[in-house]
Amino acid sequence: MTKVTQEHIDARTGAIQRAALVAFARKGYERTTMAEIAEEAGLSAGAIYRYFPGKAQLLQSVFDEAVGRNSQVFAEESAAAASPLDALGRIGVRSLDEATIDAECMELEFVLTGVRGNEATRDHHSVLRNAIVGSTAALVRDGQAGGTIRRDLDAGVLALAGVALILGLRMIRLERGEEPGDEAAVHAFVEMLKPCPPAS
Amino acid sequence: MTKVTQEHIDARTGAIQRAALVAFARKGYERTTMAEIAEEAGLSAGAIYRYFPGKAQLLQSVFDEAVGRNSQVFAEESAAAASPLDALGRIGVRSLDEATIDAECMELEFVLTGVRGNEATRDHHSVLRNAIVGSTAALVRDGQAGGTIRRDLDAGVLALAGVALILGLRMIRLERGEEPGDEAAVHAFVEMLKPCPPAS
Amino acid sequence: MTKVTQEHIDARTGAIQRAALVAFARKGYERTTMAEIAEEAGLSAGAIYRYFPGKAQLLQSVFDEAVGRNSQVFAEESAAAASPLDALGRIGVRSLDEATIDAECMELEFVLTGVRGNEATRDHHSVLRNAIVGSTAALVRDGQAGGTIRRDLDAGVLALAGVALILGLRMIRLERGEEPGDEAAVHAFVEMLKPCPPAS
Amino acid sequence: MTKVTQEHIDARTGAIQRAALVAFARKGYERTTMAEIAEEAGLSAGAIYRYFPGKAQLLQSVFDEAVGRNSQVFAEESAAAASPLDALGRIGVRSLDEATIDAECMELEFVLTGVRGNEATRDHHSVLRNAIVGSTAALVRDGQAGGTIRRDLDAGVLALAGVALILGLRMIRLERGEEPGDEAAVHAFVEMLKPCPPAS
DNA sequence: GATGAATGAGGTTTCATTCAT
DNA sequence: AATGAATGAAACCTCATTCAT
After folding, report:
1. Which of B137-141, C119-123, D53-57 has the lowest mean pLDDT?
2. HEC sequence for chain D
3. What pLDDT shows up at residue D110?
4. Which end of chain A is more exposed for a tag (fewer CB within 10 A), N or C?
5. Cβ–Cβ of A167/B166 closer than 8 Å?
């Protein structure tokens, strides 16, 4: 009966995941070595295998973690927002800015897709993306019903555009680092979602 | 002296680039082997080195080629369009649909970014992206000046949003294959760029 | 001081040896991990090192244990047999059938020899084999003196053949599992050891 | 079109197999490194993978090679022998002495079996062994029909004993090196196969 | 006395790149 | 100019062994 039990294990696991996140984000999955991750996490390469079965699973786990945070952001902001439109803007901004996701985290998703050749992973990933688009569409529909979002465009299409926008912005940010225009772009998109003022 | 040679060299170079494009797109840069590219191009692994100094430079060249095509699309559609707004829509759609870009080509950009760790490449890449955003911004400004694009939002911001949207859509398409909503999303974005109808 | 301890130590030692025997037999020395042995023995990997200096020595000890049982079989059956010839048959059959040796135990020897590269072990092993052949030869010689074993063939040679026969049968059994022909082969060999009936 | 084609490839393949045979025999499969084999064969470790997909397949190939030689010995000696009994003796002796098999080759078989855990290999192996026993049994039956082999014992059982004897002798030889008694043991076995002289 | 987390050496395998032919 | 065999540098992963708790 060791006393380092769960607490220690969780700490290690988290440290490895964080290290992997950073490394994968910075250099890409393939170019990141287990040794680098290990060093970043403060242990030896072999030790990682006590916490993760292999490099691929480590990647998967890091990704799942990120996805989880994503969902949480979604839920939190939906709840905190005054209106669906507001929620969309908040989610977009937080997706970009929050430490949770970070420029790197985006990269991660990027990298994950990079695990092409692994059909299971791709499918898994695709399902997740669909879920996000679906949730967003529901939000848009709410907004349209409530009158805060223009009704002349299809909710599903707008949702897809919104998700793509965020995805693209994170991708650009990856290359250019923190970019002031990012949030502005989100706000602009939100602005464009508003219905035109009644003519009268 | 090298009369036939030049012709031959160009043919070979092109074949290699095309093969590399397809391979990089399909499996990613790291996971693509020189042997695969060679086979696809119809020559031996060693022969590639007569045309390109190494794998990294081959990637670079393939990328530049793709960017060139991109610019051409930009120019062509700008010229053919009735208005800047129209141009933006056309560019977006063609960026998504045309064989030029294709799922693979997008992938390529994907991969290229993957050449992180190579600072020179990243910077190069960043410059290119800025150029695209810049051109787009110019187009938007034109549209605003001409009244086809709403003036209440900053041109640079809208341009960034537009580029990000395309980027994101291509990324999503990568995962889900040809997606009917893609073009609709572009059209929706264009629609939202229009100024609200005068109150009258 | 170490009253209970000794008992405990012996129990642990035996458990580890048994676990190692089974594991080595089943997967081979090299492919067996200390962790597997530990789990089978009901303790942790590290604990084994309190009872054995290392994996190699554990193997050695397991082997010696098996050899000891072998000698015991030899002695017991020699004593119980009506004649040297009878003793040979009994030893052969028991070497094959008894739980002591069992398919696994044979395997063990197999594995042990596998510790080639370790000269000390090989020599040790060779000495043991010579001892067995020697004892068998003595038995044969007894039989020849008593007239139950044919005298036209050299005792040492017959002994070698007998030992080899058993060795080979155990090896074959390893691959095919319990084989009905095994014992029959031993009996046939014994039969052939008998002198031809006097011409009269 | 290289000119080193088939000839060179065959030479290399053979060299690697021979090197592997020796190494596997000497140190066992698990303890033999690809680097050792490569050095023995006169190339680099990586180069082996141009000729064999992996270590396991190399082992398999070496084994198959040895089995092939075995069958050839069987056929040759059967043809050259004056009688089935004579054939058995010749096969036994050649199995022991000839360079074809060699102490090492036996070891090989040994090692191969050592590839436990690979069910396919074990079964394959078992089938081969059965074939050998079967062929031997046929030979014995012939001898019994012709009167050169005693008829009071079952042919299948005698065949099993014979094969086991050789197997065991080769195993012992492995430990003790060239052993003068080996051949004598084979001859003794053959002698014992003879029918007792007619009473007259 | 026991645990099991950690290390570190070493093994197999992959590939970009070179170079004799 | 082209081939493709060969090299050699990693990379991932496994484990015997140690040691703080």
Report:
1. C119-123
2. CCCCHHHHHHHHHHHHHHHHHHHHHHHCCCCCCHHHHHHHHCCCHHHHCCCCCCHHHHHHHHHHHHHHHHHHHHHHHHHHCCCHHHHHHHHHHHHHHCCCCHHHHHHHHHHHHCCCCCHHHHHHHHHHHHHHHHHHHHHHHHHHHHCCCCCCCCHHHHHHHHHHHHHHHHHHHHHHCCCCHHHHHHHHHHHHHCCCCCCC
3. 54
4. N
5. no
Nucleotide nearest to A56 (CA to C1'): F12
Q: Which nucleotides of F are covered by protein (CB under 7 A)?
A: 1-21
The CATH number of D55-193 is 1.10.357.10
Fold of C1-52: Arc Repressor Mutant, subunit A (1.10.10)
Tokens of A52: 């993760």
Q: Pseudo-torsion of CA A68, A70, A71, A77, nearest 10°?
A: 140
Element (H, E) at A110: helix A102-113
What integer pLDDT is reported at residue B111 of this predicted model? 46
A20-24, B65-69, B111-115, D181-185: least confidently modelled range: B111-115
Query: Is the pair B, D in contact (3+ CB pairs within 8 Å)?
Result: no
Q: Are A151 and A85 in contact (CB under 8 A)?
A: no
Domain B56-193 has CATH 1.10.357.10: yes
In D, which residues are within 8 Å of C193 by CB distance? 192
Model pLDDT for residues A54-111, shown as the tens digit of each residue: 999 998 898 888 778 778 888 899 899 989 999 999 988 888 776 444 444 555 555 4
Domain boundaries, chain C: 1-52, 55-193
Is the sign of the CA dihedral A128, A130, A132, A134 positive or negative?
Answer: negative
Q: What is the pLDDT of residue A120?
A: 62
CB D62 within 8 A of CB D21: yes
Residues 75-104 of A with CB under 8 A from B: none
| Residue A152 to chain B, least CA–CA distance (Å) | 9
Instruction: Report the sign of the C-alpha dihedral through residues B63, B66, B72, B74, in that order.
Output: negative
Q: Provide residues 15-74 of D with CB closer than 7 Å to any strand E atom.
A: 32-35, 45-46, 49, 54-56
